[in-house]
Amino acid sequence: MANGVKIDTVLIFKRALGLFFLRLKMKTKHIRKVLLCEPSHFSVDYVINPWMKIGSINKTKATSQWKNLANTLTKLAIKIEIIKPAKGLPDMVFAADQALIKYKNLVLSNFHYPQRRREIKKYLPWFKKQNFKIYKLPKKCFFEGSGECVWYGDLLFVGTGFRNSTGVCKFLSVYLNVETKCLELINPKFYHLDTCLFPLNDTTAFYYPLAFSQKSQRVLKKLVKNLIPLADDEANNFAANSLVTDHRVIMQKGNKNFAVKLKDLGYKTVEVDVSEFMKSGGGIHCLVQTLEEEYA
Ligand code: ARG
């Protein structure tokens, strides 16, 4: 018994030491500045994904959830820029979707659904003022920005199947001078890549297997060293739609197993509730456009 306790202590110590050195070796992402859009015109007025039900939003609740998310970001020393919302553009609040940004380069989105296309007219002048080098895709090449792209180290995963055109991968790799890998989405509930794939760092990513074609599941298994599947309930509670900064994960409230796994991997969790936005098919990651980040 006494020996058992000793072995346990040694194991725990070894594991903690291992995590410590792993953290030292890994590049840590720090989000420095983000863009948010106030939710004053947020609602569900049309249906373009299976989550959306017209008239389902409690506006007071949505506003307080959004403010809480903004406060959470501020507390983590993230600078916030805010773009004014426009009447008649209820999805403008999802600030991740209008562009993909890498350093000073920005690829402008080309929304698949006409309902969202006018958002670009509102965002473009704001982006221009920030002096980004702006790339515009050909008209017929659909693209939905950071909602459909996630970075895994220097590799850019790009979702296709619902919103992005398959041809967009080539354009992105040329414009941003990066390696891209297309992943085919097959489940309408997980229509954007940021709803089903969450890279935590250079070696680990969470994913919802049933959101991807068999071929894309194989691609992920080949490329991601530590690929962790999300259970149905957590995927449906937007676990993949999290944000990681400085060894902290800002995540949707109520995903207990996910939180435990993150803690085991050496991360702290910060839970927020964006349930009103989930009624439109969006979560934390969708509400935040990262403008500046650092890897140290
Ligand atoms: N209602 C919006 C749409 O369907 C939600 C967008 C959520 N954005 C995201 N990055 N997943 O377009």
From TrEMBL:
Mind telling me which Gene3D superfamilies this protein's record contains? Answer: L-arginine/glycine Amidinotransferase, Chain A (3.75.10.10)
Please give the biological process terms from Gene Ontology that the record holds: L-arginine deiminase pathway
Q: What GO molecular-function term can you cite, just one?
A: arginine deiminase activity
The record's Pfam families line, in alphabetical order, gives: DDAH_eukar (PF19420)
Protein known as: Amidinotransferase
Q: Which organism is it from?
A: Candidatus Woesebacteria bacterium RIFCSPHIGHO2_01_FULL_44_21
